[in-house]
Write a structure and sequence with these properties.
Blueprint (H helix, E strand, L loop, with lengths): L10 E3 L3 H23 L1 H11 L2 H10 L2 E8 L2 E11 L2 E9 L8 H15 L4 E7 L3 H9 L3 E11 L2 E11 L1
Parallel strand pairs: 4-5
Antiparallel strand pairs: 1-2, 2-3, 3-4, 5-7, 6-7
Helix pairs in contact: 1-2
């Protein structure tokens, strides 16, 4: 746990080119470390270029209705999350923290932040997808109250698919 901090001063909305660069750098670090053993380095690099490059993040914010937030503690960026309103639900598109701070309650605090954000938007449901082989993330989401609601296979091009479980949380 991180003493002397509050969720309101830890989650900072991404609004500048510098913030977007910080998110893209975090994505490269976290995804390569965490996802390469799960989906392979080729798919990780493809997804980083397609979905987490500075240009892709900028487009998601400007044109696709995404909100990105840096997760900061002591002025250090330790992770990030991305949200998008989809019909009557909030879609938690991304929630990633550095390996060095996993297991310290930051993910739970991020989910609490997302719950409050959903309520502030007048939304009662949060949805997400998670890779079927990402056992640590599945367990973490289940500990915070998410319930598995289905399976989703998405062709993302380049000969790759995302093979995920769908989860939801009523807040």
């Amino acid at each position: 746990m991180f003493p002397d901090s509050k969720p309101t001063d830890v989650f900072v909305e991404v609004s500048s080119a510098r913030d977007i660069q910080a998110v893209a750098a975090l994505a490269r670090e976290i995804w390569r470390e965490h996802y390469s053993p799960i989906i392979g380095a080729g798919q990780v690099d493809y997804m980083l270029d397609r979905f987490q490059s500075p240009a892709a993040i900028s487009e998601q914010i400007a044109d696709q209705g995404y909100w990105y937030f840096l997760i900061r503690h002591d002025h250090r960026a330790l992770g990030y999350l991305a949200l998008q309103r989809r019909e009557a639900a909030l879609f938690l598109s991304k929630l990633y923290v550095k390996k060095s701070v996993r297991g310290r309650g930051l993910g739970r605090r991020a989910v609490d932040f997302v719950r409050q954000f959903a309520r502030d938007q007048g939304l009662a449901v949060i949805r997400l997808t998670v890779n079927k082989h990402n056992a640590a993330a599945i367990a973490a989401y289940e500990r915070t109250g998410f319930i598995r609601s289905g399976e989703v296979v998405t062709d993302i091009g380049g000969g790759y698919v995302m093979d995920d479980y769908a989860f939801e949380l009523h807040c």
